[in-house]
Amino acid sequence: MTGKATTCYIEDGCSLHLEIYSHMGELAPVYSSEKAIGLVLGTGNLGAKLTANDSQKALFMSRDGGLTWRTVRMGVHIYEIGDHGALIVIARKN
């Protein structure tokens, strides 16, 4: 998010964990659009495992189909992709 690389490496037991399924749909799942090739959005956290603590989660985005990821916003958000990926709408989830 600040343009700096993380110090999270799989060799150290750290990796990106994304919400694939959320209890009662409380969190937005990993999302992509067939019209926005390579663009993927997902909520999750860095660490040894996926945390249940929403305050430690962030919105992550990949532009290369999930090969590399960037932190977009801290916290839990809902999101939508439009106009072949030229428009991304993000709103904080309360």
**Helical fraction:** under 10%
Please state the CA-atom Rg, rounded to the nearest Å.
Answer: 13 Å
Mean pLDDT: 88
Which runs of at least 5 residues are low in confidence (pLDDT < 50)? none
The ordered H/E elements are: EEEEEEE
Strand content: 35-45%
Structural class: mainly beta
Intertermini distance:
21 Å
Gross morphology: globular
Number of individual domains? 1
Would you count the extended β strands for me?
A: 7
The description of the largest β-sheet is:
5 strands, antiparallel
Number of helices: 0
Task: Describe the secondary-structure layout.
Blueprint: E1 15-18, E2 31-32, E3 40-47, E4 58-62, E5 70-74, E6 77-82, E7 87-92
Put the structure in a nutshell:
By secondary structure, this protein is an all-beta fold. It has one domain.
Question: Top keywords for this entry?
Answer:
single chain, 94 residues, mainly beta, five-stranded antiparallel beta sheet, two-stranded antiparallel ribbon, 38% strand
Describe the structure.
- By secondary structure, this protein is mainly β.
- The chain has one domain (10-92).
- The chain is 0% helix and 38% strand.
- Strands 1, 2, 3, 4 and 5 form a 5-stranded antiparallel beta sheet that branches. A two-stranded antiparallel ribbon has the order 6-7.
